[in-house]
Amino acid sequence: MNILDSKIPEGQLEEKWTKYKASQKLVNPANKRKLDIIVVGTGLAGASAAASLGALGFKVKVFCISDSPRRAHSIAAQGGINAAKNYQNDGDSVGRLFYDTIKGGDYRAREANVYRLAEVSNNIIDQCVAQGVPFARDYAGMLDNRSFGGTQVSRTFYAKGQTGQQLLLGAYSALSKQIKDGNVELFERREMMDLVIVNQRARGIITRNLTNGELESWSANAVILATGGYGNVYFLSTNAMNSNGAAAVKCYHKGALFANPCYVQIHPTCIPVHGNYQSKLTLMSESLRNDGRIWVPKDREVAQKIREGVLKAKDVKEEDRDYYLERRYPAFGNLVPRDIASRAAKERCDAGFGVGKTGFAVFLDFKEAIQRLGKHKVEERYGNLFQMYEKIVDENPYETPMMIYPAVHYTMGGLWVDYELQTTIKGLFALGEANFSDHGANRLGASALMQGLADGYFVIPYTIQNYLSDQIYDDAKVSNQSIEFKEAIEGVREKIEKLMSINGSQSVDTLQRKLGNIMWEYVGMGRNKEGLQKAIVMLKDLKEEFWKDVRITDNSITMNQELEKAIRLADHIELAQIIALDALQREESCGGHFREEHTTNDGEAKRDDENYMYVAAWQYNGDNIEPIMHKENLDYQFIKVQQRNYK
Amino acid sequence: MKFKLNIWRQKDAKSKGYFQRYDIDNISPDCSFLEMLDILNESLVDKFEHPVCFDNDCREGICGMCGLYINGQAHGPDSGVTTCQLHMRRFTDGQTITIEPWRAKPFPIIKDLVVDRSAFDKIIQEGGYISVTTGGVVDGNSIPISKEKADKAMDAASCIGCGACVAACKNASAMLFVSAKVSQFSLLPQGKIEAKTRVQKMVSKMNELGFGGCTNTYACQAECPKSISRENIARLNREFIIAKTTSEELF
Predict the structure, then answer these.
(1) What are the sequence ranges of the domains in chain A?
(2) Which single residue of A146, A278, A596, B175 has CA 20 to 30 Å from B183?
(3) Is B80 on the interface with A (CB under 8 A)?
(4) What residues in B contact A165, CB-CB < 8 Å?
(5) What does pTM read for this prediction?
(6) How many domains are there within chain B?
């Protein structure tokens, strides 16, 4: 029997979620008080889940890696959140949002999950407005919208260029109320070190208190993982410094299957790399592509002169500019999906048309928008982004075009979950970016916020009850003093002691950079068989090098940020290995996964629906042993699968 | 570029701290302040020394995690930026740079440059929210809000909770932080229902946690990386007086 049972309810697409809710099992209020739930992570998914479950009456413990839930990296999302409200009367609907998301994901997502996401999208907007999220309004006082990549309607709600911040603060405020009311307990500066399994069910976690190094064990009836994605495996990414995929790797090691790890989104509009000391990359919101036009010079020699600083962007005449997205994709122009925009930029730069000192940059130009709308209007829409750009690059984007280049941004892959968001470990649920379910092989802009909040506010409060309903009996109670917890804590202690005792010659950052270079070079925007095979060998060597040669100073019973990074890096190397394996087995190009061997005649990605229309879910099989791949076939019953065409 | 760094080192909350002098060379002017500290830390690890602990996360000025007191200024010499957005081009070659943690009683030091700002969370937990639970709310467009009010609420809501206002204030007052949250909700119709209790609870919690009073020097506004306006403090005072002097039934 296939171990991947997606538990998709029967019936028409439009009826599935309604039917599920009507027939699922619930927990009565008196019993809710007896049930403990652990939530790891306080981004949009974690905070909204903890707040909603606390309000329902469950006893919730929530763990946060930073000093406050308000710091989670959801806060950095700029552009907006999608919903099928159709306030603009421009032809939007739940069905269209569903279709755009499936198509945007290159037909590699589950229909039922995506439809549910589109269905609850409208509730999210209402919920956030009720919380006091200050969405942009028009002069009549109604909610304003903008458009985003991969769509032909305006369905994106926004709060200046700080939508993620405002939505997170909304979820944080709801969480704060539940903390005040005593329904949720908050533990900050804690990092999950292991998942504890008792009788084949997730029963708790081990955490490390980052202020003093203390290891702690926590038991519960269910564990929710909302720890975000693993983009930092690539070292340079738009992720925050503390964002990491280590918690998901712990779950993978304990038996949770890891799905589609090779689907990594490279975002087209980031500030280009400028030096080898660089610690992270900064995203410039996709919303800029609403009004900004992307171009490079038509002539290689002109590009060369710009790189040398002899010519400036404004010296290049209109007819000498190649607006390559508008040229190649007239229907969507600058608003093609992210994967397509990123590859097109790489293609131009690789062909010698790139600008900037390194040649790895393209222009994003607002001259036309400023003429059309006036500087004031442009400032109103993107002011904070322009300011951010100016502070980093020291150039004024109102006068000279911005320079941008693609960078790792989001990971569509994650822990495999069924329709109830439950992983292959009973009692372990994964929400938001940490799971794999809704974005297929590519995520559309403004959909991450939608998914995080949909999972947390409107999905998990229902589906977790179906699991917890038979956890109300006394034998489901587990003490954190049980043998399983003691063994887990001992295992963590041993691993930390081992890391501290290596005393090698390389800093964690040095090794992390090496990992990032391998991944960007061979498992980045363009992948091929030879490169991937090479990467797999290099990663094996890097793993050995890490465990022989890492150097961590200070000790483990104090705040030690080097040790924190080392623990994460150990897991990131393992994750890198399954990303490469997954990319190697997927002999097709789809969404964020582009195999150079599989292209159409005009260089576009070529999918292979006949052989690869499945979710690849990897099962851990022991240290240094190749994991086992399981397939969940994607069965499109309601949508007609087509080639993704944005021309 | 090269710099002389004077950095506050403190082993833990209970130990006595001290300034340690470090010399650093070969720094690109395009390097961010925190990247400069990364380079320093790598060199310390190279010498088997203990790296300097400092809080940071998003490194794009939005999470509010970083915050250093640099040459006597919260978030350093540039205006409208957090420490992570500060670049070395704002300093002169050979300059001495003194780096301290936030200095305020309600923010005790954890280690080196890392402080405990959980007092801010406690203030929010007192009432920095609208008490809706998930579900059962009205359609978003059924609560029209004038663009002007919505924009003002947004400006107030853009506070990132970094604590620079407290660190910059000679009284270690949290008025700008509290007033930003109070303003956001008092400007919006959704927030009106709990307005009176919210402002009273948040202010009393702020006092209880040891934050000082406001004496209108506006150092907070000057140092705020998000340029939160002192106008919010005036609005808080107004809300507070209304709450204290009128009964619930009248308004």
Answers:
(1) 267-408, 484-609
(2) A146
(3) yes
(4) 62, 158, 160
(5) 0.96
(6) 2
